[in-house]
Every structure is written in C-alpha cells, then in structure tokens.
Amino acid sequence: MTDCIFCKIVDGEIPAAKVYEDQNLLAFLDISQVTPGHTLLIPKKHVRNVLEMDAVSASQLFEAVPDLARKIMKATGALGMNIINNNEEVAGQTVFHAHVHLAPRYGADDDLKISFLSHEPDFEKLASLAEKIQQTEV
C-alpha cells in the first residue's frame, strides 16, 4: 500500500530502529516512546488490522509476542508490560496497518495510563450476550 507509513518502513523508504525482523514480521521502536522501549510489532504484508487477518498471519504475529516482550523487559529493566492491539478508529487505531504495541512498564507514575471502570455485573445480560456471541457466524 503506497500511503501506509508502516509499509514504507518495511520497504526501507522510512528509517526505523528495528529490534526484530523475520520473513513475515518486523518490530521497531515506536517514535512516540510512550515508555522507554515502546515497540511496535507488525506483519510485513499490509492488512488493515487484526480483524482482517487470516488465522495463519495472526498466529505468526501473536506467536512472536512473548519472546519479544521478554527481550524488551530484560533489555530495559521494565517491571511489567502492556501488550495492546487497537482495531479501528473508535478503539484508538491511528495507523491502519495491523500492529501490536509492546509498552514496558516501570511504575504507576510512568507515562502510560490505562484504567477500566467497574460495573456491577448483570449476570442475566452477560449470559444473554455470551449466548449471542457463541451463536454468531463470521
């Protein structure tokens, strides 16, 4: 894809600080560096996001995550790791080429803030939604 910044990185048109590469995948440091060592892992073949990936491509992408995360943590001395994948604009995707963020964590006061709001569970609604998901064909 000609206008995709990640495709341009794969093609060598834009420089990147690469941390891992094989025939299908490329990992490089995110230029934003939300936390030191913030890395993006992408498939070399353009695909919009994980929702559009086939099982083989998704398997290749996610199979590389654990080793890469461990390497990043060891190299940076991080205490933890957020592994984030955003799909579509409403979910925070800003570059429409599938990618996984590996964001090392150093403490509660580092620059990455993620929070979830708790809700009282409605077990009837949960059961209904679970059944709907189970019965949905894709």
Task: List its traits.
138 residues; alpha+beta; HIT family, subunit A; five-stranded antiparallel β-sheet; HIT-like_sf; HINT
CATH architecture: 2-Layer Sandwich
Domains, number = 1
Q: Do you know the CATH topology?
A: HIT family, subunit A
CATH class reads Alpha Beta
Share of residues in strands: 15-25%
Mean pLDDT: 96
Q: How many strands appear in the DSSP assignment? A: 5
Looking across the biggest beta sheet, what order are the strands in?
1-2-3-5-4
What Rg do the Cα atoms give?
Answer: 17 Å
Distance between the termini: 26 Å
SS class: alpha+beta
Care to describe what's here?
This protein is an alpha+beta fold. It has a single domain (5-113), classed as 2-Layer Sandwich (HIT family, subunit A), CATH 3.30.428. It is 29% helix and 18% strand. The chain contains 4 helices and 5 strands. It has helices at 5-10, 55-63, 65-76, 123-135; strands spanning 18-21, 25-29, 39-43, 80-84, 100-105. The protein has a 5-stranded antiparallel β-sheet, with helices on one face. The protein is globular. The relative contact order is 0.17. The model has no long low-confidence stretch (mean pLDDT 96).
